[in-house]
Amino acid sequence: MKVLSIGEIMVEMAPADWGLFRMGFAGDTFNTAWYARRLLGDAHDVAYGSVIGTDAVSEDMAGFIEAQGVTPALRRDPTRTVGLYMIQTQNGERSFSYWRGQSAAKTLADDPDWLDALLKDRDLIHFSGITLAILSPDARQTFCKALAKARANGAHVSFDTNLRPRLWEDATTMAEGLRLGASVADTVLPSFDEEQLCFGDSHPDDTIRRYRDLGATTVAVKNGSEMVHLWSQAEGDDRYDPPSVPQVIDSTAAGDSFAAGFLCARALGASVRDATEQAAALAAQVIQHKGALAPAIFEGGNT
Ligand code: ADP
Prior knowledge:
The chain is α/β, with parallel strands linked by helices. It has helices at residues 28-39, 56-67, 112-119, 129-133, 137-152, 171-183, 192-199, 204-213, 254-267, 272-286; strands at 2-6, 10-15, 21-26, 45-52, 71-76, 84-90, 93-99, 124-128, 156-160, 187-188, 218-221, 228-232, 236-240.
């Protein structure tokens, strides 16, 4: 099986001791690729598609992706570099500052031939609301057309709506963008609080109805510790109560790991219900670890 996740991975500067910052790399769609890599056996390929620069930090990023077992599927733009964010802690609360306005990933759809080649012959293609938000309105259309073509050629397309209002031009464009993304997806993975914010949904059934009407065949509406509402063409309506966790250490990547758990299980033949159970079990472990990526879960270590 050939899996591809597409979007933006950024340099992360996280506070370390003595006023120093530790450099890492992170991004929602990359996190999903990272978890998918660990859930699928070596017989499967998991690639990450994006655009980076040709400078030293871009080289480090490509090396990082590869070192994590994820196949880099990267275009290089020598005129740009990668985006960066810095985490700062004030009174125990983390705040984020971003420098991504000119990042190379914003040119993801600028070379349609490269994009078509990237999407060709993939079994599963995953992208998110952030992948769309960083593109210009024209580039969004180009990107979604390329996805629609890949879907028509047999790829299963998955969309994690991942709402980031600050990345979109305005609320109306954001809502249109999410509809556009969902209209080219088989599986849509929204979060209910974000759907309430964006579309004014009063119940997860409203969310399911919208994405079903846009052509999705599977919708899983997450809601933090609350019930996951499911609908699929194959199995109809269902609900799943995620396991409760003793203490949430860091909820970063809950949705990203849920997506990986769900999509990998489905791709390997699990029912929607079993895939949800596996996804929720993984997310429950992830949120009991600090940071987006939790290698300990897969090392039989401190889980
Ligand atoms: P997102 O990060 O995309 O907003 P959610 O916060 O809804 O997604 O979380 C995704 C999944 O992670 C949930 O469906 C659930 O399985 C799990 N999860 C998140 N928060 C909790 C929590 N506090 N307790 C138990 N499970 C949780």
